[in-house]
Design a protein that fits this description.
oxidoreductase, seven-stranded mixed beta sheet, globular, alpha+beta, Aldehyde Oxidoreductase, domain 4, binds dioxothiomolybdenum(VI) ion
């Protein structure tokens, strides 16, 4: 199995991340952030900052660089400094440029800002009273046509057993190791921008729109990304400002966010409140599911965390279903996509409620889930293209020792031990992608696309699928990505990259073979006029063989280039698509201190074909660890003033090695070629889904205490 190709470069410090680029004459920008949650900036005194040592310029809404708001498939992107309105504490309101990072930072501290303050809404709890209907998320009610029901309430009336509870999840920051940054340099009318992202051609398009130039004038480069998770999906404030200021000053500009700035000058996961009601018969068959959600969002209402639509809509077979989604606009930092947007917090509520129903029914929680397994999403005619969730539970039960679980948990010395499970699910999606293949006269091939490898292993996967498509050993494949000058490669988001890019590689591979056979049989070629076939890098005709590199040399060609493009299509009218998984968690809660330790986790996943077990395993382990982190550690705390009280790694808790026990990952491997020709269903996000519920369910099994919010802390178990 191929190890990660970029691994040695990353662990030996040779991988050059965006901010590692240093250019002659480069200057440094440091962001000034707002210190009030809502109001209008009345004044910004920059006199002291401008005369501080090494300072070249200070940009503010009073003395700004002009930027136009771009709009892409991820929605409208906010651009900084364009007006004096402040809508959250920590909003970018200025940029100080100096000849060193330190001097820019020192001068930024000298900027005096005066505000006309306005009352700010910062509390999610208070804001719920004024919740709004979420844009593009209609309330939905599906009723059993044969039951003669007036509304979902009737279905609950008719249910012998009902669980109806409210759950809450906290605001999170992506906390990627690599902070957001940009190094911008103009050469004439052409901009080169080094900035971490999840799809370089999309950032290039955004920046070009913002600057009013043609997309062909902007080249965005990011061969290595130190974690993104949705937090680098949108073009960042450093990218916009470094590009514009570099043009204004005629010098390369570097802007790097500090760790503290990452907590407010980017976007994070919404907090949610979710009410889940489940009605069932005594055998545990669901009669009705209701999921009402509220999520926080920024004042611009820029993102909806779709917990109810993304989760209950697809999870279980039920004849009656109602979902609603409300947003709670607040004066807090923006929210955006974060690993498994919707499903991660949504599964905490739904999968906790299912566990509560199992307890109510005195039924094994795996058995309850199996009884309600769906063959198609409720209310849809389209069956799942492949679903092996039951097998995930069966395989997981055996390996995890689920049979040893008692409904009352057990004790081990001073520890109360419990086990919990949850379903994991994330839709299998594809995005349009184009891949180029260049066959070279030295017998090697370059496989390239503009998309990003934010640590997921896409580069390595491209090499493997490229080798397969060209029937060559992997050593002869050079994968390239992370450069908007390459063919447009989709977004590394939504767990789509392998299916999207992989399919395009296969199509490009077919085009490459067609091109080679045509060349080999063309006029003046070695096999002129003959039937030519291709295998393992060679062309065959009439018992003769020529390697493709030799063919190119014979024809005086250095290389041949082809491309392949794929996009989601007809399959969407035939099936529903999703990856599935079963999460198992064992926790130990200390009898006296109430400390919670997760001793073992196991995830068994149905993600279609697994291209590379090693990479897939580490991707899913990372996701599961994040789920544990959401369950026990992570929460951004916003003070009444709107200031984030724990915006640094000292106080925003993330798990360390000592917090993580055994993390097992297993696959049931059923390639899903109804979804795409590669057979991969996607596994970037599903790892985190369900884990928080499995932890809460295990805590309940161990202690008898049901905690309906995350993170779960010691205080909740006293
Ligand atoms: Mo993901 S939240 O699509 O990186």
């Amino acid at each position: 199995m191929t190890s990660r190709l970029d691994g040695p470069l990353k662990v030996t410090g040779q991988a050059k991340y965006g901010a590692d680029n240093n250019l002659p004459g480069m200057v440094y920008g440091y962001l000034v952030l707002s210190t009030t949650a809502r109001g209008e900036i009345e004044s910004m005194d920059v006199t002291a900052a401008k005369s501080a040592p090494g300072v070249l310029a200070v940009y503010t809404p009073f003395d700004k660089v002009d930027l136009t708001t771009p709009s892409s498939m991820l929605g409208e992107t906010w651009v900084p400094l364009q007006n004096r309105e402040v809508s959250y504490y920590g909003q970018p309101i200025g940029l100080v440029v100096a000849d060193s990072f330190e001097r820019a930072r020192d001068a930024a501290a000298l900027v005096e800002t005066g505000y006309q303050e306005a009352p700010a809404k910062t509390s999610f709890e208070d804001g719920i009273a004024e919740a709004e209907v979420a844009p593009d998320r209609e309330d939905l009610e599906i009723l059993d046509p044969d039951a003669g029901l007036e509304s979902i309430a009737d279905a609950f009336e008719a249910s012998p057993v009902v669980v109806d509870q409210t759950y809450a999840t906290a605001t999170q920051n992506h906390a990627a190791m690599e902070p957001h940054s940009a190094v911008a340099a103009w050469e004439g009318d052409e901009l080169t921008l080094h900035t971490p992202n999840q799809g370089s051609h999309m950032v290039a398009a955004d920046v070009a729109t913002a600057l009013g130039v043609d997309a062909s004038q902007v080249r965005v480069v990011n061969p290595y990304v130190g974690g993104a998770f949705g937090g680098k999906g949108k073009t960042s404030t450093p990218a916009f400002l470094a590009s514009a200021v570099s043009r204004a000053l005629g010098r390369p500009v570097k802007v790097v966010l500090t760790r503290e700035q990452v907590f407010t000058a980017t976007a994070g996961r919404a907090s949610t409140r979710q009410r889940v009601a489940l009605g069932a018969d005594r055998e545990g068959r669901l009669i009705a599911v209701r999921h009402d959600s509220w999520c926080s969002t920024d004042a611009a209402r820029s993102f909806v965390e779709p917990t109810s639509h993304g989760t209950s809509l697809e999870w279980y077979a039920t004849p009656n279903l109602a979902v609603s989604q409300r947003i709670v606009p607040l004066n807090v930092p923006p929210t955006t996509f974060m690993r498994a947007p919707g499903e991660a917090p949504g599964s905490f509520a739904l999968e906790s409620a299912i566990d509560e129903l199992a307890i109510e029914l005195e039924m094994d929680p795996i058995e309850l889930r199996k009884r309600n397994n769906s063959t198609a999403p409720p209310g849809k005619d389209l069956q799942w293209s492949s679903k092996h969730l039951d097998e995930c539970f069966t395989v997981g039960s055996q390996r995890f020792g689920w049979a040893n679980r008692s409904p009352q948990g057990r004790t081990e010395g001073d520890w109360q031990v419990g086990m919990g499970v949850a379903v994991a699910m994330f839709p299998a999606l594809r995005s349009p992608a184009t891949v180029g293949i260049e066959l070279r006269a030295d017998g090697t091939a370059v496989v390239s696309t503009s998309g990003a490898d934010p640590g997921t292993g896409l580069l390595t996967v491209m090499s493997t699928i490229g080798a397969e498509a060209l029937d060559l050993p992997e050593e002869r494949i050079t994968p390239q990505l992370g450069d908007s000058a390459l063919p447009p490669g989709g977004l590394s988001g939504g767990s789509t990259a392998t299916a999207s890019v992989g399919t395009a590689i296969q199509l490009a591979g077919v085009a490459a073979v067609d091109e080679l056979t045509a060349l080999a049989s063309g006029p003046g070629a070695p096999f002129e006029g003959k039937d030519v076939t291709y295998a393992h890098g060679e062309l065959f005709a009439d018992g003769e063989t020529i390697a493709f590199g030799d063919l190119l040399r014979r024809l005086g060609r250095e290389s041949v280039s082809v491309s392949g493009s794929s996009a989601p299509g007809e399959e969407l009218t035939k099936h529903s698509f999703s990856s599935f998984g079963a999460q198992f968690v064992e926790v130990k809660v200390h009898r006296w201190t109430r400390e919670i330790r997760v001793s073992r986790m196991l995830g068994v996943f149905d993600c279609g074909r697994i291209i590379n077990d090693k990479l897939a395993t580490s991707q899913l382990q990372g996701g599961m660890i994040w789920g544990l982190s959401a369950a026990l550690h992570e929460a951004m705390e916003v003070e009444g003033s709107g200031r984030v009280a724990n915006g640094d790694f000292a106080s925003y808790l993330l798990p360390v090695n000592a917090d993580i026990g055994e993390v097992g990952v297993e696959f049931v491997k059923y390639p899903d070629t109804l979804h795409n020709s590669v057979g991969a269903k996607g596994l970037g996000e599903i790892g985190t889904v369900g884990v928080a519920a499995a932890v809460a369910n295990a805590v309940c099994n161990a202690t008898g205490v049901r905690v309906r919010h995350i993170p779960i802390t010691i205080e909740n178990l006293l």
